Amino acid sequence: MQADLYQAILARRSVRRYDQNALDDDALARVRELATHVQPLEPGNRFEARLQSTAPGQDLVLDLGGYGRVVNPPHFLVPYIVGEAFPYSDLGCRVEQIAVRLAAMDLGSCFIGCVGREEGVRARFGLPPEARVVALLAFGRPSDTLGGRAVNALMRAGVRATDKLPLQRLFYVETLEQPSAPPAGLAPLLEAARQAPSAVNAQPWRFLWQDGQLHLFVKRRSIGYGTTLPMRYSLHDGGACMGNVLLAMEALGIAGHWAPYGQDGLDAPPHPEMLLPLAHLILE
Length: 284
Ligand SMILES: Cc1cc2nc3c(=O)[nH]c(=O)nc-3n(C[C@H](O)[C@H](O)[C@H](O)COP(=O)(O)O)c2cc1C
Hints:
- By secondary structure, the chain is of the alpha+beta class.
- The protein folds into two domains: 156 residues, 3-Layer(aba) Sandwich (NADH Oxidase); 117 residues, NADH Oxidase (3-Layer(aba) Sandwich), CATH 3.40.109.10.
- The protein is 33% helix and 20% strand.
- The chain has eight helices and nine strands.
- The strands form two sheets. A five-stranded mixed beta sheet has the order 5-6-7-9-8, covered by helices on one side. A four-stranded antiparallel beta sheet has the order 1-2-4-3.
- Helix 1 packs antiparallel against helix 8 and helix 4 crosses helix 8.
- It is globular and about 55 Å long.
- The chain starts with a helix and ends with a strand.
- Flavin mononucleotide (FMN) binds next to strand 3, helix 6 and helix 8.
């Protein structure tokens, strides 16, 4: 068991105030390296995460139209994906693995959403026209000043990130009618899943255990995402949840992978219209 990796999945939190000093070349080389070794949801998609250093005075949230404040991140990644198969979920799945591995290196990170402004982001960072982007990932050493820690705690409380939904509100057995607590055997994977980050902490994921299989759904609409945004945050954040499960399986020595619906002809279990089936987990 890789206890450190499992712990990093559970402990990773968005960091919004950073020590503004740049990381050293070794640390940046490690970040580049780990960004190229994430597990794909769909191996056919092309994934890249460009590493950038923040210019003095540059405010990524302001520039990208994200929410809140992310202060002094010395670096950020511009992750994007090219491909037609489940691109937004694949993107979330891969970038969340980077965020967790950064946490395992004692580095903080925060997604900064840019849905609705993709055109500008592509132009600004010279991405190919077919590149899909959902969020940048700011990262660096968390500020350890008293003020910095207070900002981080305040911002998390502001989006109620300290109130993550308990598993007994996210997990269903056999039908999606009434949520219930998961069996002990599934809890370590689901605990990792529910800790995933989501835009405005919407936590769109819902889990169904049916006939010995785990199915993942996301809410099609969430009050948190607003009504005008397309489904992209939901798909991306469902992917982040899958990324956490993949890492948890690696940490716990469980072999398996996610099979997105529409790939192997398997029909999703019956579900209400408000839920979108994403994938089911195949354990080997
Ligand atoms: C796609 C995406 C976009 C996000 N955009 C922002 C943002 O613009 N500003 C911000 O402060 N946090 C942003 N976040 C961070 C979420 O608010 C955070 O993940 C959520 O509140 C859960 O908290 P945690 O990451 O500390 O567990 C974003 C997260 C995701 C996954």
